[in-house]
Design a protein that fits this description.
The protein is an alpha+beta fold. It has four helices and six strands, in the order αββαβββααβ. α1 packs antiparallel against α2.
């Protein structure tokens, strides 16, 4: 598989994640391009829900849609608490926050060297 094909798969995963979050009315979704900043992952998707239930609904839909499209979820952290859930799809790491937690941890500031794409939802 060539570099272009790999990037196309990553783009598809990003689209699946963002669409799945949007389906559950996620708020303030951003995509952070970390390829030139970190070797941990290529992209962060950061989004918020207004409540514990909404966070879980977003997470469940992202997992379901990701798996339906052939992507493997390698790790899920924080689901039981529902305040900050991390989904590790290797090349894309998804952070779903309750809004207060997101403001407190402020990942966008911590990773300020990354390019950020706001999806205005």
């Amino acid at each position: 598989m060539g570099a272009a094909e790999i990037q196309n798969l990553k783009n598809k995963l990003l689209n699946v994640v963002v669409d799945a979050a949007d389906d559950k009315r996620a708020r303030n979704t951003v995509v952070m391009d970390l390829r030139n900043v970190s070797s941990v992952t290529d992209y962060f998707v950061i989004t918020s829900g207004g409540s514990y239930r909404q966070v879980k609904g977003i997470v469940d839909n992202v997992i379901e849609k990701g798996e339906e499209n052939g992507f493997t979820l390698y790790s899920k952290e924080g689901y039981d608490e529902g305040k900050w859930v991390l989904l590790d799809f290797t090349d894309v790491i998804v952070h779903v926050f309750e809004e207060e937690e997101r403001a407190f941890y402020n990942l966008e500031h911590l990773w300020a060297d990354a390019e950020v794409y706001s999806l205005d939802n």
